[in-house]
Amino acid sequence: MLKNKKILITGGAGFIGTHLFETLIKKDNYIIVIDNFNECYYSGKEKNLAKVSQNHEISKDYEIIKGDLLDDSLYSKISNDIDIIFHLAAHAGVQYSMHNAEQVTRNNVVGLVNLLEFARKIEIKKFVFASSSTVYGNPTYTPVDEDHPKNPICPYGISKLCGEIYTDYYFREYSMPITSLRFYSVYGPRGRPDMVVGKFFNLVLQNKEIVIYGDGEQLRDFTYVSDIINGLVLASEKTESSGQAFNLGWSNPISINLLVNKMYELANKPKKVSYKEKKKGDMDITHADITKATKILNYSPQVPIDEGLRKTYEWQIETDKH
Ligand SMILES: NC(=O)c1ccc[n+]([C@@H]2O[C@H](COP(=O)([O-])OP(=O)(O)OC[C@H]3O[C@@H](n4cnc5c(N)ncnc54)[C@H](O)[C@@H]3O)[C@@H](O)[C@H]2O)c1
Predict the structure, then answer these.
(1) Are the beta carbons of 163 and 111 closer than 8 angstroms?
(2) Which residue among the candidates 30, 96, 136, 156 is catalytic per the annotation?
(3) Mutational test site, ligand 1, from 132, 167, 184, 225, max ligand atoms within 8 Å of CB
(4) pTM, two decimal places
(5) With contact defined as beta carbons under 8 Å apart, do 85 and 94 qualify?
């Protein structure tokens, strides 16, 4: 596990970013968080990061820079002796991207290129890029390995694929040690309220109806956040991961209908579900083949869906009390 390193986390106030912060800060690392705390599709990021950082009372071990990767003046505020960059900042919503393609493209592609230029100048020792399973689009076979054709069906997925092309370029052209990780439907405490698990738990607990788009038989490879954090750390440690992309999933998808049943069972509440027409941009199935990540990164996801949902539910109950 990474120790005594100087680490930059972009998007460090977001869902996955706060978990990475929490994990790495415990290991005597110095953490720099960059986040613009945007409220485009959910709010509360400033509060989430404050909670996580205050929990540890080690304010000398981190700094938080409120800034935007699109703003050139940001880069002069970041120190030059960083060892590792975890680039998590992005507009991450699939549906948001369907109506805001230009904004998402600028943010996710130009923001990344600005950061890559900064990383090149400081001769970064390792760069890890958060990509997404959406780069594949609807699969032609499952489970989906890294060589599967890339046919994204939403601007967000396209922006991540562009990002991967740029990371490949910086690896080839500048020998930048850089790895792309394709995350699959990440869930857990502090999960994004615009994503299915966070959104549905909120509705279940408020006794409100869940609306499922499509017939609910679409399959999702839900992956618990601590498994993703392990994958991020492993990728940053393995030299041989550079110049490559890896799937990070649980590799055992379930349908949205089954997910909803599990949620109602946990909450012990009567089911209230209705169905509407499938939304454009939503994939029919996501299913990661994690053989490559297992072999090269030693990635081994540990948290089955029932355990992950229980932990998320318990966190949600606690949060609602305060
Ligand atoms: N959550 C998932 O299931 C999932 C799946 C696949 C990929 N990913 C990727 O993982 C990363 C983290 O996702 P998340 O779920 O934590 O999302 P999130 O929205 O919670 O976190 C992203 C953070 O980036 C910040 N940000 C966005 N644009 C910025 C910019 N230009 N400058 C500075 N900060 C900026 C946001 O304010 C936010 O705090 C993203 O790159 C996302 O695309 C997530």
Answers:
(1) no
(2) 156
(3) 132
(4) 0.97
(5) no
**254: β partners:** 220
8 A C-beta contact, residue 246 and residue 292: yes
Q: How far is the CA of 90 from the centre of ligand 1 (A)?
A: 4
Mean pLDDT of 179-204: 96
Query: Does the CB atom of residue 34 touch ligand 1 within 6 A?
Result: yes
pLDDT above 90 for 234 = yes
Average pLDDT, integer, range 167-177: 98
Q: What is the whole-number distance in angstroms between the Cα of residue 106 and the centre of ligand 1?
A: 14
Model pLDDT, residue 279: 94
Q: Where are the domains of the chain?
A: 6-186+225-251+287-302
Pull the structure tokens for residue 1: 């596990």
Q: Is 111 in the pocket of ligand 1 (CB under 6 A)?
A: yes
For β-strands 219-220 and 254-255, DSSP reports them as antiparallel
**What pLDDT is stored for residue 322 in this prediction?**
74
> Could you say which architecture CATH assigns to the domain 6-186+225-251+287-302?
3-Layer(aba) Sandwich (3.40)
pLDDT digits (tens, 9 = 90+) for 77-130: 999 999 999 999 999 999 999 999 999 999 999 999 999 999 999 999 999 999
Known catalytic membership, residue 156: yes
Question: Is the CB of 14 within 6 Å of ligand 1?
Answer: yes
Structure tokens at 126: 């390792």
Q: How much is the average pLDDT of 242-258?
A: 98
Centre of ligand 1 from the C-alpha of residue 10, in Å: 8
